[in-house]
Amino acid sequence: MDFYQVLEKRRTIRDFSDKKVTDEVLEKVLLAAFKAPTNDHLRQFEFIVVRGQENIARLISPVAENTRNIQQAGLDAAADMMDKDEHAMFVDALPKQQRMLIQSNCLVLPFFRQKDFPLCQPADQ
To answer: pTM, whole model, 2 decimals?
Structure first.
């Protein structure tokens, strides 16, 4: 497939099915992620995979309310700088993004770790 064909076929998906992500698909996604360009090819990525809506909700919920308040304050502050349609789009999109996270069955959290500071140590989790 030609590069421009790839660009033309790219889509942003905002609604997801409840179909489980297989280990094979997850492995392909993570392998592709490790091929992403990085500074000096250091590849200092670490990924945490969270499976199951209950686990994801437990992880996201404590942040959700605080994020909602921050988002609302930001939208209120930006209302004067945005036109009506742009503001309405953000008012609609931000809660939907949060809902998509909570309703998903698989969440991949990418982290870029500093050299000599591994993220995935039991004490850090």
So the answer is: 0.62
Q: Where are the beta strands (DSSP E) in the chain?
A: 45-51, 106-112
pLDDT in tens, 7-43: 888 887 766 777 888 999 999 999 888 887 776 666 6
Within 10 angstroms of residue 13's Cβ, the number of other Cβ atoms is 7
| Buried-state track 18-34, b at ≥16 Cβ within 10 A, e below 16 | eeebeeeeeeeeeeeee
Rounded to an integer, what distance in angstroms lies between the CA atom of residue 39 and that of residue 52?
33
- Residue found by looking up tokens 């304050």 in the block: 73
Distance, C-alpha 123 to centroid of its chain:
24
Tokens found for residue 70: 């921050």
Q: Tens of pLDDT along 77-91?
A: 777 777 888 878 877
Phi, psi of 75 (to 5 degrees): -65, -40
